[in-house]
Design brief:
The protein contains 2 helices and 8 strands; from the N terminus they run ββαββββββα. By secondary structure, it is of the alpha+beta class. It has an 8-stranded antiparallel beta sheet with strand order 1-2-8-7-6-5-4-3. A hairpin with a 3-residue loop joins β7 and β8. The two termini are about 25 Å apart.
């Protein structure tokens, strides 16, 4: 897996923001990768905490829509929702929600590589607040990075398996 990680921490008087990035190259066209990620019903294939996912009220992935999930974190099942904050097909998508008691944002950016590949980057930002401030920022950042890396590997494996099976999103 081609991967590059970077993390930063920004401090303000109220909170610290943790940011992580994970990068991979997917052996599929940007349109194929984009179509796969827009199919939120398939997010459980690559996101280890997602059990079920759908766009509230149906329709396509679009800015302003809500993505509702049934998730399993830290041993308990719960529901969570994320607002789609940006969609620029087929180059980027972004979401806002919460992680624990903190505000979180995440997104993905895509660019074509050659004629048949896609460079994909997932970023996650968490504004550490409230009770989450007692969790060491370095440990939280490492946990977020680990999950993001797993998710990116899962995306690549699923998309490439679809393409190799002839079932890709052409």
């Amino acid at each position: 897996m081609t991967s590059q990680h970077s993390t930063t921490q920004h401090s303000t008087t109220r909170h610290a923001t943790i940011r992580t990035e994970s990068r991979i190259i997917v052996a599929a066209s940007i349109d194929t990768v984009w179509a796969y990620l827009c199919d939120v019903a398939r997010w459980a294939e690559w996101a280890p905490t997602v059990l079920d996912c759908r766009i509230r009220d149906g329709g396509p992935l679009r800015s302003g829509a809500w993505v509702d999930q049934r998730a399993r974190d830290l041993g308990w099942n719960h529901h969570r929702s994320e607002r789609v904050t940006a969609v620029d097909a087929p180059h980027s998508m972004a979401f806002a929600g919460t992680m624990g008691t903190s505000v979180a944002r995440w997104g993905m950016e895509f660019s074509a590589v050659g004629g048949t590949g896609t460079a994909a980057m997932m970023w996650v930002e968490v504004d550490i607040a409230n009770v989450m401030r007692v969790y060491p920022a370095r440990s939280l950042r490492a946990q977020i990075q680990r999950v993001s890396d797993l998710e990116m590997a899962g995306i690549r494996a699923a998309v490439e398996a679809d393409v190799h099976a002839g079932a890709g999103w052409r």
